[in-house]
Amino acid sequence: MLLTLYYILVGIIKAILPAKLLPKKSVTKEKVLITGAGSGIGRALAIHLAKLDCELILWDINEKGNEETAEKIKKFDGVVHTYTVDLSRKDEIYSTADKVKREVGDVNILVNNAGVVTGKRYLQSPDGLIEKSMSVNVMAHFWTTKAFLPSMLEKNHGHIVSIASSAGLVGVNGLADYCASKFAAVGFMESLSVEIATAGKEGVHTTVVCPYAINTGMFDGFKDCRFPSILPILETEYVVEKIVDAILTNQEALYLPRAVYLLTAMKGLMPVKAGLLLHKFFGTTSVMDEFRGRPTKSD
Ligand SMILES: NC(=O)c1ccc[n+]([C@@H]2O[C@H](COP(=O)([O-])OP(=O)(O)OC[C@H]3O[C@@H](n4cnc5c(N)ncnc54)[C@H](O)[C@@H]3O)[C@@H](O)[C@H]2O)c1
């Protein structure tokens, strides 16, 4: 009971104090694997962590984008390895993971970041895209984690990071498959963190990141809600700085912006119909109405 109160107090202090005042771990020379490093959050995070002297292992299906990220890292003499891998294929994940272990060694920090979005109403979503959302946004997390967690547990040293979404906490219309995959990713991380903690592996950490929309291009056409000062579309650099702080301070969950903590708590307390009214009032039921997503080469 006393310990619970202690952790609540620590949580409050951590939430109030600016990240720069919190004690941070060193990640120098840590081997960090980031999936979806060929653009957006994955690319910016890779560059940030390489500047902190981590050795980067970049995975993406987009070879060109992945190489571009690596080039940016090599420009400041960062150490980086690239692998082209389709995360919707379990066999490719396992074979590439074996290759990484042979060529680079054990991974210390795994960031499950790659993601896809269909962006259509449920009945208009083609089966293939629904399956893709589930395989890239969550099933891949099971396979990468199965490949890299054992050595972390063995050494009692490591960190698993999942870039989920606020759409993994609250259902949004026009995002049924995306929300389902992100809810699953959040659930996977919550169970995993309990499993690691009950195994007494206090040196192995988990962080689940749940941001609202970010201006990377993945959600192009996503509309501002009625109160953008409370729920703004986030800047990539801001999100990445917060993710790095969360990794360095072993923060278990990061919701962005802060209003997401409050909205999630309210969802748990409110009757469903009242929640839906609040959703409509905030304008979050129409944010996907003009969704285009990332333009493809044929656009
Ligand atoms: N952009 C947002 O508004 C937003 C908000 C919340 C959470 N997120 C999550 O953040 C993560 C990063 O998103 P982003 O905005 O940087 O998007 P992005 O489209 O810029 O990057 C996603 C990367 O994943 C890669 N990828 C897609 N399918 C793949 C596959 N089958 N195999 C390997 N790589 C694959 C893409 O090539 C791309 O480089 C995603 O998981 C996304 O769901 C994004």
What report would you give on this structure?
- The protein has 299 residues and is an alpha/beta fold.
- It has one domain: NAD(P)-binding Rossmann-like Domain (Rossmann fold, 3-Layer(aba) Sandwich).
- The protein is built from 9 helices and 7 strands; from the N terminus they run αβαβαβαβαβαβαβαα.
- A 7-stranded parallel β-sheet has the order 3-2-1-4-5-6-7, sandwiched between helices.
- α2 packs parallel to α3 and α4 (90-103) packs parallel to α5 (127-155).
- The protein is globular, with a radius of gyration of 19 Å.
- Nicotinamide-adenine-dinucleotide binds next to α2.
Biggest β-sheet: strands ordered side by side in the sheet: 3-2-1-4-5-6-7
Bound molecules: nicotinamide-adenine-dinucleotide
Number of helices: 9
Overall average residue pLDDT: 95
InterPro entries: NAD(P)-bd_dom_sf, Sc_DH/Rdtase_CS, SDR_fam
Organism: Bugula neritina
GO cellular component, one term: lipid droplet
Protein name: SDR16C5
Topology at a glance:
Layout: H1 2-16, E1 31-35, H2 40-51, E2 55-60, H3 63-74, E3 80-84, H4 90-103, E4 109-112, H5 127-155, E5 158-163, H6 176-198, E6 204-211, H7 236-248, E7 253-256, H8 259-269, H9 272-282
Bound molecules: nicotinamide-adenine-dinucleotide (NAD).
Concise synopsis of the structure shown:
The protein has helices spanning 2-16, 40-51, 63-74, 90-103, 127-155, 176-198, 236-248, 259-269, 272-282, and strands at 31-35, 55-60, 80-84, 109-112, 158-163, 204-211, 253-256.
